[in-house]
Amino acid sequence: MIFVKGVVGLDKKGPYIIQELREKSQGTQIWGKYLILEKVQRKTKDGKNMFNLKIGDSSGEINVVVWENCAISGALEVGAVIGLLGDVGVYANRVQVTARKMKVLTDEDPLEYLKAPNISIDDLVYKLNTMIDSIKDDHITNLIKRIFTTELTEEFIKAPAAKKIHHNYSGGLLEHTVTVCELCLKTCETYPMLNRDLLIAGAILHDIGKIDEYNIKVVPEYTVEGRLIGHIVLGNELITKTINEMRAEGIEFPQKLEWMIKHMILSHHGVLEYGSPVVPLFPEAFLLHMMDNLDAKMFVFDEKITTSEGEDEFFTPYDSFFEQLFFKYRY
């Protein structure tokens, strides 16, 4: 049992997954097991302690309010799995849960509560390897295979693509990278002047710095160098280091090709205010930026619509980060 015997009003219909919580009416009592994704401690106006938690499972995320009178067993920390008994409510047009009782479940595996890519890791790895094997330019092939050592490949497969916005789970970077590659290759069919091999290289390597930007023991967290330097510069440094090592061993790598690959990494955010030190200056760099942005935005639209909160039939609640609401009706 998650809770001690005698819990008043324990819903025998549970446990509920997050997706089911959003569909419950206000005042419904729920229970289940969830992963703590975020924790913020606050004080009420009268000086009492309270917590705001974001909890999740493989079906989604939801906010939890923890008042001082909540019975808590164990230390509430990010990455811990908890048993939760609480009441569904709505605040600012968003569904949330007010906790009654919580217990940290030390025997639970947190990894089982994380979101995962829509495609299996094995299938994503196969797709990526197939695209790498299709590259005809020997210089690009040598660079990519030199970068993807066994150790780095394992890190790449586990890494998230972001902390919050898109593909923010283990395997998310791999999933995002494969999709960006596929989008770039599809566009090559329409614009034959594009260099296919250069595009594949840019698509595969554009976020390579994220393996050092994030640490994902359970949930994604920034590393020190991730905060101070960022994945764009970290990726550029890795490319520079690898090419210098190749040349030191007598392996030729054209200077102009180095410039172009590094430019694609440095410019893939598209505009200076989003973190790129330069804007895209040739077609492959511009297309990479567009396809990277497209995949991230499509992920956001799908997430916002499929995990919509609130009672409005047509629109999600206003999102302060994107400064818009989303039309959630699907025809």
From TrEMBL:
<dbReference type="InterPro" id="IPR012340">
    <property type="entry name" value="NA-bd_OB-fold"/>
</dbReference>
<dbReference type="InterPro" id="IPR006674">
    <property type="entry name" value="HD_domain"/>
</dbReference>
<dbReference type="InterPro" id="IPR003607">
    <property type="entry name" value="HD/PDEase_dom"/>
</dbReference>
<dbReference type="GO" id="GO:0031125">
    <property type="term" value="P:rRNA 3'-end processing"/>
</dbReference>
<dbReference type="InterPro" id="IPR004365">
    <property type="entry name" value="NA-bd_OB_tRNA"/>
</dbReference>
<dbReference type="Pfam" id="PF01336">
    <property type="entry name" value="tRNA_anti-codon"/>
</dbReference>
<dbReference type="GO" id="GO:0016787">
    <property type="term" value="F:hydrolase activity"/>
</dbReference>
<dbReference type="InterPro" id="IPR006675">
    <property type="entry name" value="HDIG_dom"/>
</dbReference>
<dbReference type="GO" id="GO:0003676">
    <property type="term" value="F:nucleic acid binding"/>
</dbReference>
<dbReference type="Pfam" id="PF01966">
    <property type="entry name" value="HD"/>
</dbReference>
<keyword id="KW-0378">Hydrolase</keyword>
<protein>
    <submittedName>
        <fullName>3'-&gt;5' exoribonuclease Bsu YhaM</fullName>
    </submittedName>
</protein>
<feature type="domain" description="HD/PDEase">
    <location>
        <begin position="169"/>
        <end position="306"/>
    </location>
</feature>
<dbReference type="InterPro" id="IPR050798">
    <property type="entry name" value="YhaM_exoribonuc/phosphodiest"/>
</dbReference>
